[in-house]
Structures are given as C-alpha cells and as structure tokens.
Amino acid sequence: NAEGPTLFGMPLKYISLVTLAVQNAALSIVMHYSRVSTPPSQAYSPASAVLLNEILKGLISFSVAIIQVFNSQESPYRKSLPLSVRHVCHEIFSADSWKLSIPAILYVIQNSLQFVAISNLPVATFQVTYQMKILTTAAFSVILLRKSLSPTKWVALCFLALGVGIVQIQSTSASPHHKSVNVPVGSAHDAAPVHIHIMSPLKGLGAVTAACFTSGLAGVYFEMVLKGSKSDLWVRNVQLSLFSLVPALLPIIFSDHRNSQGFFRDLLKNFGGWAWGTVAIQTFGGLVTAVVIKYSDNILKGFATSLAIILSFLASVALFDFKLTPSFLLGSTTVLVATWMYNQPTGRETVTIPIPSKA
Ligand code: C5P
Prior knowledge:
This protein is mostly helical. It has 13 helices and 4 strands. It has helices at residues 12-36, 46-71, 81-92, 101-120, 123-129, 133-144, 151-172, 201-227, 233-253, 263-267, 273-295, 298-319, 326-342, and strands at 6-7, 10-11, 177-184, 191-199. The strands form 2 sheets. A two-stranded antiparallel sheet has the order 1-2. The chain is globular and about 60 Å long. The chain binds cytidine-5'-monophosphate (C5P).
C-alpha cells in the first residue's frame, strides 16, 4: 500500500496528522487555562509537568517497543516477553544512544519555555507566533541536513515571517495584558471572578521565539539521528526520554525546599485536573509527533499545526472572549497562506543526510 499502514481502512498517515492538529489546539487551550485559572500561590510547577511528561512518554514508548518485538513475525524473540524486554533494553543502551542527549536537552528547554509563553500570551497569538517553527526548522534543515529549498518555499517562509510579525505587533501594543477568569466557587450557580492573571506579552513573545529555535534545532537533529541509523523510532523515543530526565530533574532539585513535604508531595503540589490534562495531552502529542515523523514527514507536520491555529482560534473566541482584530486576521491569514504555499509539493527538494561511518 503506497499510503502505508491503515487503521479502520484509513491511512495512518492522515489519521496521525489530523490527530496532531486536534492535539495541538487542545494543548494550547488546556495548558493556557491550567496556568491562568489559579492564583500564583496555587499554581502547579511547570518543571513537574515537564518531568512527568518525559516519564510517561518514556514508559509508553518502552511498552510499544516491547510489544513490537513480541509480535513481530521476523523477530527471533517473538512471543517471549523476557527475551523481548532484554532485546529492547539492549537496543536502548546501544553505543550511539548518546546522540539523543542533544535533542533531549533542547526539548526539555522547549517544553519549559512553552509554559512561559502560554502563560503570557492569548492562546491564538501563541499558536500563530509558534508557526515561526517552520522558519527555524527550514534554516536548520539547510544548515544541518544540507536540504535545498525551492524558490516557492523561500517565498512562503518570508510570508510566514511577515504574518508572524503582524500578529506580534498587535499583541505587544496592548502590554501588559490583563485577563480575568471566572472560576465557579461555592454552589454551581455561584460563579465569580476570583483573581486577575497578569500577562506580559513581551515575555511571552521572547519565550515563544526561543522555543521556535529549540524546536527547529531539536526536530532536525532528531531527524538526522533517526535517518542516519537503523534504530527503531520507539527505542529512539525511550532514549530521548531517558536523556531528558537529567535536565528535567535539575530545576526540581535546585528549587526552594524550605517548606518541603517530601519529593513526591512537592512534585505533585497543586496538581489538579487541568494540570493532569496538560501533562496527558502533551504526552499524547509527543507520541503522535513520533508517529507523524514515521508515517508522514516534517512538512506535513507543519501543515497539521497550521490547521490547529484555526481550531484553537475558534475555541478561543468561544472560551476566552478572544476579540478578533483586523491585524490578527491579516497576520493569521498570511501565516495560513504561507503554510499552504510551503506545503505545496514541488519535488525539487533534496536531502543529503550524513551517514556515520560506524553504526
Ligand atoms: O512543536 P514541535 O513539533 O517542535 O514539538 C515537538 C514536541 O514533541 C515536543 O514537546 C517534544 O518533547 C515532543 N517530541 C517527542 N518525541 C519525539 C519528538 C518530539 O516527545 N520523538
């Protein structure tokens, strides 16, 4: 089948793409609400969320890797759980696993910056500005993968930068941005604004810009490692999670322990439904990203995130009283047109991936 594996008769490639778009939109909304709906004294720690995300992703990827070996027709370890586990562990601790340390550190930084960005920007502004990832991904693809882009794609990238710039101008002009959130207290009918969350768009835009750089570099580096060796994607994911544990643990270890109630209590302090929802959607997103990279490609991944803009914009209008301004509309439309242009197949792109002399 030219379209690759199918699920319920539909190509997995398209299912994973649509799922990623919905996940992207859901993540920015749930993460934003989880940060702005409580006063700072009752806020959960983003560092804990980043760590839990990596632990969950690692455990799920480890399970998938084992199931694959256990069920594979070609595997000599088929239908033997201990042998399958041993084989996967052997693969995980292979000599070239260190290569994943670089994207692992970058992804932890990116996931942490995402919390700063989403706490300081309206959801739709965050989504549109985060599209700069396409620009940084292209730049790092040219530098690291020696990818050559068609003139149409370069024009699309310029449009993208322009569109993001227009959206940025409208979001910084209203600095600092105040937002009040209605949180029901007491009886079900007793809804009252309980606090005002102050957003700092400049801080948000700085964080989102930095996150775009780590996204581009980490994504391209991960692609380089994946395509430069024969290792399984799920094994690579476990390696990625393992290397993420160190940078994800550092801010927790070096945080203020004066009122400590023990490691696990501190870790899960103020973790309510919205915080767990954020972690679950982020973990799911990491796994879907892996599937998208395997069954489609990074270009289609960019298309999925632009679809997410429309979804989260519609949801923002309904949930967060997001006001449509002419500059937001112009900027978003420019970003969407640019994304569409960038995703037009030209067949002219070539990728040269440096294959290491030794596996
Ligand atoms: O926005 P971008 O595509 O750069 O985001 C990638 C996200 O997916 C990050 O949160 C990263 O931690 C996650 N990821 C993952 N496993 C991969 C690649 C990315 O969990 N193999």
